[in-house]
Amino acid sequence: MVFGVYTGPQEPEKPLALLSQEEQAELGARKMVEAMQSCPGKTVMAGGSGFVLGGFFGLFMASMAYDVPVGNNAANHISELPFKQQMKLQFSDMGKRSLSSAKNFGYIGMIYSGVECSVESFRAKHDIYNGVVAGCITGAGLSIKAGPQAAAFGCAGFAVFSTAIDLYMRSESAAPPSNDYDD
């Protein structure tokens, strides 16, 4: 059994020392694929990739936002500071914004992926409804502190967004149209 799924009769595994190099590589690859297809593996991968994507997004957005005053005094603009001080402030702010965005994207990716995998495992089906339910639970969970109305809007918003993305992704992998002459 692999993560609750019966995969048929299994032959007993030989000790690692008795396996050839090719058999060891095959066993290692099989274990890696099993780990990546598990709910914890999918959750960690989604969190990591969300963290990286969020970091780049935060870095990009932070590089565009230097038209605001520095500090509490509205008379101080970043353009009035010496160049070295401007660069120090900009890089510091870019790092903070990038890290904040990376954490948020990683957190959302982990929650969504973990919930979707859990729902799929519970339902024992792979269809679009898993993403809808995961989007609803994720959106509601992220906005629950703001009250039940915010949780309902978060649920609806994330569910609609998740459905739109799933439908788009499924349309790209569909069979080509019958008038496709690229043979």
TrEMBL record:
Membrane topology: Multi-pass membrane protein
Top-level division of the source organism's lineage: Eukaryota
Coiled-coil parts of chain: none
Keyword tags: Membrane, Mitochondrion, Mitochondrion inner membrane, Protein transport, Translocation, Transmembrane, Transmembrane helix, Transport
Keyword Mitochondrion annotated: yes
Residues spanning the membrane: none
Molecular functions per Gene Ontology: mitochondrion targeting sequence binding; protein transmembrane transporter activity
Biological processes per GO annotation: protein insertion into mitochondrial inner membrane
Transcription regulation in keyword set: no
Cell compartment(s), UniProt: Mitochondrion inner membrane
GO CC annotation terms, alphabetical: TIM22 mitochondrial import inner membrane insertion complex
Subunit structure and binding partners: Component of the TIM22 complex.
Role this protein plays: Essential core component of the TIM22 complex, a complex that mediates the import and insertion of multi-pass transmembrane proteins into the mitochondrial inner membrane. In the TIM22 complex, it constitutes the voltage-activated and signal-gated channel. Forms a twin-pore translocase that uses the membrane potential as external driving force in 2 voltage-dependent steps.
Protein family according to the UniProt entry: Belongs to the Tim17/Tim22/Tim23 family.
Stored PANTHER family: MITOCHONDRIAL IMPORT INNER MEMBRANE TRANSLOCASE SUBUNIT TIM22
Protein name: Mitochondrial import inner membrane translocase subunit TIM22
Higher taxonomy: Eukaryota, Fungi, Dikarya, Ascomycota, Saccharomycotina
